[in-house]
Specification:
Elements: E1 2-8, H1 14-20, H2 26-33, H3 38-55, E2 66-68, E3 74-76, E4 81-87, E5 90-96, E6 101-106, H4 122-130, H5 134-152, E7 169-170, E8 176-181, E9 187-193, E10 200-203, H6 206-210
Parallel strand pairs: 1-10
Antiparallel strand pairs: 1-5, 2-3, 4-5, 6-9, 7-8, 8-9
């Protein structure tokens, strides 16, 4: 099982977020309010609500099940695996019964891509350099790379340039499958998991979040 849900946090006003914040635990509400920027608070809030929307179908759901592994990756005890990613005003969550990594990035044509050249495998560098749309190619490689390292559970590491994430299959235990997906316009989206079949991707609307507690 591999499913992805995406939501535009720009659909929610500050007043909406103030109301929805009551869906979090007291500790998570405090953490949410520590973000200084409104967009960061929205992204954090909506990411948590995507998790609750998915897992609250189980009557045993409780925020007390939220745990953070030693590598910093969150999980919900007793529930399937998940991984969160956000960029600008979009938030995405991947859900699976096996390890999974997800990355979502806004395609910024003005980003100084050459500054990160050393993080890419030579074949990735050649792919970006030869692409008609170098920014799109850069973010395609970057999201695949970050999704892989998130799935493996190490986070971005010093050996990023040694892994060619243009390959759809990468060896490991389990063997990893990388997929670039059709995400929101002007964004790049990639997932890494043991599954080779294309995941189900759902784009949620405002009502799907606001009615979850009804």
């Amino acid at each position: 099982m591999l499913e992805i849900e995406v939501i535009d946090t720009g659909l929610f006003s500050a007043a909406d977020c103030a109301q929805l914040r009551c869906e979090l635990s007291p500790a998570q509400r405090r953490a949410n309010l520590r973000y200084r920027q409104e967009r960061d608070r929205r992204n954090h809030l909506l990411g948590r609500l995507l998790i609750k929307r998915r897992f609250a179908r189980d009557r045993s759901f409780s925020w007390d099940q939220w745990q953070t592994r030693p590598n910093g990756k969150p999980e919900m005890s007793g529930h399937p695996r998940f991984n969160l990613s956000h960029s600008r005003q979009m938030v995405a969550a991947a859900f699976s019964d096996r390890p999974v990594g997800l990355d979502l990035e806004w395609v910024d044509a003005d980003f100084p891509m050459d500054d990160l050249r050393s993080f890419f495998h030579p074949e990735e560098q050649a792919f970006i350099a030869s692409a008609a749309d170098s920014a799109r190619a850069f973010y395609q490689c970057w999201t695949r790379k970050e999704a892989y390292f998130k799935a493996v559970g190490t986070g971005l590491s010093a050996r990023m340039h040694q892994i060619n994430c243009l390959q759809d299959a990468l060896p490991g235990s389990p063997d990893w499958q990388l997929q670039s997906l059709a995400g929101p316009a002007e964004y790049a989206l990639a997932v890494c998991s043991p599954y080779s079949a294309a995941p189900i991707v759902r784009f949620l609307d405002r009502e799907s979040i606001q009615t979850q507690g009804d």
